[in-house]
Design brief:
mainly alpha
């Protein structure tokens, strides 16, 4: 079968033909290379701060009582000296504010530490306090505070 179709179109230039199609359906323009993307934010890890320590009630009572002794002075044979100095039990009572669980537990820890350092014969904080020097008493207070800190009480 030979079918011949005659067209009566005027021949056109191929370049002009291509240009017409490009105007109707433009090819995507080449995109200029994108600027390098900014790096993803990096978490800044600062030098780790030591964790915040919240003292337990026993540690706080002991620390506050020792601060009272440092501020007002340490005394023997009296709960409170007329000039404001206190013995160990007087400082504990003032720091605790009441004979509560923190007062009782702090006193037990202090007496236990006194017995560790100075012998098991001490029956009470006042008898131990009145039989030792200020430096010895302070050493027991500091050790008791460390124990309370390390046991988180």
């Amino acid at each position: 079968m030979n079918t011949r179709t005659e067209t009566r179109f005027t021949p056109i230039e191929q370049d002009l033909y291509a240009k017409a199609f490009q105007l109707l359906d433009p090819a995507p323009q080449p995109v200029a290379p994108a600027a390098p993307a900014e790096p993803a934010p990096v978490s800044v890890i600062l030098a780790a701060a030591p964790p915040v320590h919240w003292p337990g009630p026993v540690e706080k009572t002991l620390t506050d009582a020792l601060a009272l002794l440092d501020t007002h002075g340490w005394a023997k044979h009296r709960l409170i000296h007329p000039e404001g100095a206190r013995c160990s039990i007087g400082a504990l009572r003032a720091a605790a504010g009441a004979r509560n669980a923190a007062y009782r537990d702090a006193g037990n820890l202090l007496l236990d530490e006194a017995r560790r350092q100075h012998g098991k014969q001490w029956e009470s904080i006042p008898s131990w306090n009145d039989s030792h020097t200020g430096a010895q008493v302070r050493g027991v207070w500091e050790a008791a505070i460390r124990r309370a800190h390390h046991t988180n009480i």
